[in-house]
Structure formats: C-alpha cells, structure tokens
Fold this sequence. Notes:
The complex is a heterodimer. By secondary structure, chain A is mainly α. Chain A has helices spanning 4-20, 41-49. Chain A is elongated, with a radius of gyration of 26 Å. Chain B starts with 12 loop residues before the first helix and ends with a helix. By secondary structure, chain B is mainly alpha-helical. The mean pLDDT of chain B is 87. The longest helix of chain B has 32 residues, at 125-156. Chain A binds chain B through residues 20-23, 25-42, 44-50, 53, and chain B through 9, 13-18, 38, 41-42, 44-45, 71, 73-77, 79-82, 84-85, 126, 130-131, 133-134, 137-138, 145-146, 148-150, 152-154, 156-160, 162, 164-167, 170.
Amino acid sequence: MSTTKETKRANATASAQAVVRMYPANSLKEQVRAPHDNLSAFKVLKDKFLTEK
Amino acid sequence: MQHFPAAPLKKRHMTDFFSQLEDPEFFLRFVGGHFESAPSAVLERFPCTNTVSEDRIRLAHDNYLQLIKTYKVLLQSENPDHYKRSGALLHSLYQNQIITALQFESNGVGEWEEIEAETPLGYSHADAQDMVGIVRFYNDYHNELLSFDLSYLCCAAYEDSPREYDFNFLENICHYLWKNRDLNVDSCSMIFRALMHGS
C-alpha cells in the first residue's frame, strides 16, 4: 500500500513532465548533404546584381 | 590574412553536423571562416575587409548552446530538429553582431563615396547601379545576411528537397532581422520551418 507521500510524489512527476514538455514531438533527422552544397545567399545576390546583361 | 582556418568536417559529418557545432573550436572556425571570407565571395569588384570578433563568436556559441540545452529540456526527444537548431544558430549569430566593422578599399573604380554616389569610374550607368546595389546591400545588412545564410545552409543540409529563396525573400529577411533586434528563438526557428514548408 502506497503512502500519501509517495502518491503525491508520483503525481508531481507526471504533472511536471506535462508542463516541461511544451513542444510538439520532433527530433533531428539524418543529414542528407553538406551545408555548403545548398543555395548560398552570395549566389542570390550575384544573380540579382552582377549577372551579365 | 585568414584568421579562421577552414573547419575540418569529421568523417561522420553527413550525419552529425549540428553535433559538431556544439564544439566551441569547430564553431569558431566554421562561423569565423564564413564571416571573414564573405566579402571576397560577394563583392568581387569592390574589395572590403570585415572585422570579425572572436569574442563575439564565442559569446554566440555560448548563447547557441544555451538555446539548444533549453530545447533539449522542453522536448520529449531531447534532440531538437533542424528547424529549432537553425533558429538557435540564427538567433545567436544575428543578435551578437559578429562583424564589428567594414573597411572598403579603393580598387581603381573609385572611393566608397564615389560608389555610393553611383558614379564609379569606367562603368555604364546600369552597371554602376548594380555595383552600388550590392555594395549598399552588404553595407546595410552584412551581419543579418551572413547570419541567415549560414543558418539556412545548415538547415537545408537536413532537407531532402530544400526550398530555395530569391532576392526578394532575402531582402525581407535581412530587413526583418535588422529591424527586430530582440526576436525570440522560436521566431527564428519558424522562419526556417515556414520557408521549407511553403508552397
């Protein structure tokens, strides 16, 4: 038979977890390429301003 | 002189790049190298030197780690996704203003005042306007531009088909970051989530 003190502790833990976990579930997925293989802002700027006319 | 030698990617970099960013020395080299080399990559025709603060990069790293640790506490997985990590990176970089000064150099097309007045030597009016445009954009938004660029590069590395953006989007983001100095990290994360999931 559990004591009142133990019951309170268990309830407090569950309640605390509900409060602490405040974001929708997600986690980091696997990386698929190196960062610099993606679109660079430098290219966006050059395309806008320095593209040969 | 290059003060921030290229950060070596570990063999397992294809699966743990964000983990590498948690290492302060890797963060220093990766961020420092990107911010220091930007002018030569962007302003080919008008040399410029960025003054990059190592102290601010280290402070940005401290902020970045704190944000990641907070997310780890608040998430069931204790492993925040790439939107949250990219948002934390953007937040820590743009709020710490890594570049503390720009020094434009004369290169035969005129001094900065001449460029700004849209009268660089030897260029047509149209070319002069384009030259002025990119130099002015960089002068106005260098910290916001490089902070977003680096964070986007990292975020897109985890997307199967990363959504790209155009100049209009880039200009709006830079102005948004410039105007809003105290965004919270969730706002920064939402930039990447919204961009990658937009139609």
